[in-house]
Amino acid sequence: MFNSEKTEKPKTLTGTRLRSYAFALLTRRDYSQAELIAKLNQYAINPEEVDKLVEELAQNNYQSDQRVAELTLASQLRKGKGLQRIKQALKAKQLDAELITEELQEVDWLDQAYQLKIKKFGEEIATDPKIKARQIRFLQYRGFDMGVIMKAIARTSGEE
Questions:
Q1: Pair 140, 113 in one domain
Q2: In the chain, what is the straight-line distance between the N-terminal and C-terminal CA atoms, in Å?
Q3: Per residue in 58-115, pLDDT tens?
Q4: What is the pLDDT of residues 147-156, one digit of tens each?
Q5: Does one domain contain both 71 and 101?
Q6: How far apart are alpha carbons 109 and 82 in whole angstroms?
Q7: Containing domain of residue 85, as a range?
């Protein structure tokens, strides 16, 4: 019935079947080069063929690490993540944060942290040390730097 041993999937893809599988993957979502290579190598017979195929897909702009980095940034910002968590997500996808350095510098991290604080704790400035500590931990977990956190929890709604 249930086999607890992991069975290796047979590696059978080459040529046009490998190319078709790569396109099928990329139509569903964007993958970084490293992710795509790992995914294709699960089924491909020849790893060199995979490397050439992924390089060709990148040259023809079917696969773009830049696009993946930008989408990851947008997704993480929507989720209310800070700079450190965004860099961690990029690293997990084996992307370099340098791809979106400009976009990262354009983000108003103080406003991001403040909006998140308001959403979770309200606009009131905490005077109780326990509540302050909770707010700090929450924003630290989200990946914001301490300087930004301290400004965000001390900020009033009238400040810009």
A1: yes
A2: 63
A3: 889 888 888 888 888 889 988 989 888 988 888 888 887 787 787 888 888 898 899 8
A4: 999 998 887 6
A5: yes
A6: 7
A7: 66-106
